[in-house]
Amino acid sequence: MTGRPTLTQRRREATRxxxxxxxxxxxxxxxxxxxxxxxxxxxxxxxxxxxYRYFSVKEDAVAPLLAAGGQEWVELFAASPAELPMxxxxxxxxxxxxxxxxxxxxxxxRWARGLLRDPKLNATWQRVHADSEExxxxxxxERCPDGTDPLEIRLASAAATAAIRVALEQWASxxxxxxxxxxxxDLGARCMRELTAGLRLWExxx
Length: 206
Hints:
- The protein is an all-alpha fold.
- The protein has ten helices and no strands.
- The radius of gyration is 18 Å and the shape is globular.
């Protein structure tokens, strides 16, 4: 899709995100198992039928919230200067996407911590991770010279996305703050450097 989203598309996305926030708040408070789709719909102010137009199961209702940071990360990477080495661009974009710039983002990160601790949401988190890896692979391919080995692009995408996943899971399992040592951006930068070091793709792209 190109160009500015239509009004209908923007309204649908706003509704989808509102459902995600509602589900995240309820799941964080009581756990996903104790919350029903009917309750999410009622608190979000929509019908159950509308809920199921957006999500097939209640656990997937939090996918947009879990995916938001990854989407921003790939977009920031794709928009980075072409002369910036890709490893550096990936790390800078990761740190930026993992840094809450306002209270709304901070609240979303706190919700994400609770969601990542809930084993009932593991399958949703893994799907979000896989989607993020695919988006990054496309973005990496667009910055690579013609003839670049697709396997090297895939390996780089897998390693970089795993770095974000490991950083967030490590932070979520701890009591570390949103900034400073042990924070998502601190762990994200460390994981990105260590997990992407030595990839052959950087020999062709810098």
